[in-house]
Amino acid sequence: MSNLELYKNAYVESFEIEMDIVETLEYQSIAEWDSVGHMLLMSTLEEKFDIMLEMDDIIDFSGFDRGKEILLNYDVKI
Amino acid sequence: MLLKNKLAFITGSNRGIGFSILEKFASNGCNIIAHSRTNNIDFTKKLKTLEKKYNVRIKNINFDILDSELMKSEVYKIFKEKIPIDILVNSAGIIHGGLFQMSPIKDIRKVFDVNFFGLIELTQMMSKYMTRFKNGNIINISSVAGLDLSTGNCAYGTSKAAVIAFSKTLSSELSSYGIRVNVVAPSLTNTDMAFSKEASKERELLLNSNKPFERMANPSEISDAVFFLASENSKFINGQVLRVDGGNKF
User: What is the DSSP string of B55-113?
Assistant: First the structure.
């Protein structure tokens, strides 16, 4: 599975949503991506990419595209 | 065997209440990540004995609660194994006694760094890891000093009060992920810490009493309470403080 697929699946699994809306997502743009969902997403990403996100990055993780940029800091290229 | 095949992370597990919790958990089939500040041959031998006696796995992990970077790297090694940690017991702590006006701020700060900030830093990492598995149980060891806040508790008592306040808000936040958070608040317990000069006044009072409950707690009486909160017998108890003090208030 490619990193992009892993990344998208993290959203699908964390928020229990359909794959086709994933790329448009921003924090709090859907009910599922609230603060509780956010931490679920962070822990899912940590598990999938075997990383430990820094607190600043967790706070800064504001959407699908921004998330890709942040993961680059952990040598995860989407 | 109420904790059979569970995995617990216990801080400050090499002595006192922490070691008693470790023994209690191991005797109930729990595998353990046993934290201690430093590596110690005697402790390692004790762990081997317990492993054999109870047929459990115990891994010793060493870091100073004040060393944020080392804590992070050691804990991350455990996370890499991707094994769910079912229970976190935050037992590490230091004591301090003295009137506020005679307590240097650096001493008060150190007490908070160990008893509170170290605890919350580790809990932040652990709770995020537990979120992956949507399951977890966190038990923080506070003290009756954190509830009663009597004279001489400007540092120790207030740091333990902070642990209680933190635990209550955390229990509310983490319940969404199936993680419980509770507190055990022991009175003076018969450990090395009770024989420090800071605890001398209360210790003397208890040692000189003839009343059955006016005595120091035994470490096993505290670990019994922790064990209860760690087990499924308390599965609907969340955000509570369990006072274990024989009913004494000084």
Answer: T--EEEEE--TT-HHHHHHHHHHHHHTTPPP-EEEE-------B-GGGS-HHHHHHHHI
Q: How many CA atoms lie within 13 A of B243 on its CB side?
A: 11
Split into its structural domains, chain A has a count of: 1
Nearest to B131 among A43, A50, A55 (CB): A43
If you average pLDDT over residues A60-75, what whole number do you get? 98
Residue A2's pLDDT band (cuts 50, 70, 90): very high
Supply the ipTM of this predicted assembly.
Answer: 0.86
- pLDDT confidence band for B200 (50 / 70 / 90): confident
Interchain contact A3–B (C-beta under 8 A): no
- Which domains occur in chain B, in start order? 7-243 (3.40.50.720)
